[in-house]
Amino acid sequence: MVVTVQPSPSLLPNPAHLKFAFSKGLDSWLNLHILTDFAASGFSVFAMVSLNAHGFGGTGKNRSVVCISMKGTEEEVPAENSEQESVAALGDFASSCKQAIESEQSKLKEAREAEIQKREVTAVCASVEPIHNEMQQPPVNPYGDIPISEEDYEALLRIVQAEAGGEDEQGKILVAEVILNRVLAEDFASTISDVIFETSGGSPQFAPTADGRYYSVEVTGSTVEAVEKAINEEDISQGALFFSARRRANPYDMAWFDRNLTWLFQYGGHEFYTLP
């Protein structure tokens, strides 16, 4: 409590003259109303009281600032001096109350901003958690249900070596996945070997099966590793069903690709397509 006293000789305050008022505002904070009662004589006591509900069994959140004006009994004093003292006291009192109110409002604003920031952080964490969980999930392998015989496995190694022997690991994986994607697609044969040796209009789907490279290649260790990753890991080919090396391909064949297929991407020496 902070008390400012303007004394008059031998006078005591009369509690019956105690006047104060307050009303309940937002968030259970108490808004201040100042009542002043000055007389031409006597003394005035101006008290600024800071109340905290914590002292009354509360949680400490509900806090109020109450400004009180008390007036004593009347005594004849020079009117000019009394009026000057009262005006000066009123100025000091009002200034103290204003500072107290501004201080409490500042604390309230800080508390609200802290709560908003806490909610924003909570919301961000909630939005990041599903992404984090998704990142922790193992990649989906779409080829796990494809039955692969020894013949199929050997055929896949040979066609990848013949078509992508000069590509890096990812380039070999992409070629292998085109074969695997065709096995899963309804428009092509249902086994790896049948897909590799399939023809269309009398022409082979994969040139190495016709020009002899399929039979003459020596499968390298890097090709084996690439094929294993293609079979057992996620699809990185975007579901591609065709590939072609434009620089080495027949221009008429590439024209057919461009007219009838949907281009997906290019990697290494190959361009990859799917059905429209």
Description of the structure:
By secondary structure, the protein is of the alpha+beta class. The protein has two domains: 128 residues, no CATH class; 125 residues, Orthogonal Bundle (Arc Repressor Mutant, subunit A), CATH 1.10.10. Helix content is 45%, strand content 18%. The chain has eight helices and ten strands. Strands 1-4-5 form a three-stranded antiparallel β-sheet, with helices on one face. Strands 8-10-9 form a three-stranded antiparallel β-sheet, sandwiched between helices. The longest helix is centred in the middle third of the chain and has 58 residues. The chain is rod-shaped, with a radius of gyration of 44 Å. The two termini are 82 Å apart. The N terminus is likely disordered.
Helix count? 8
Kindly state the percentage of residues in helix: 40-55%
Q: What characteristic shape results from the CA principal axes? A: rod-shaped
Q: Give the biggest beta sheet.
A: 3 strands, antiparallel
**Largest sheet, order of strands side by side?**
1-4-5
Average pLDDT: 77
* Radius of gyration (Å): 44 Å
- The number of domains is 2
Estimate what percentage of residues fall within beta strands: 15-25%
The low-pLDDT segments are 1-62, 69-77
* DSSP strand tally: 10
What is the distance, rounded to the nearest whole angstrom, between the alpha carbons of the first and last residues? 82 Å
Based on helices, strands and strand pairing, what is the structural class?
alpha+beta
Task: Give, in order, the helices and strands.
Answer: EEEEEHHHHEEHHHEHEE
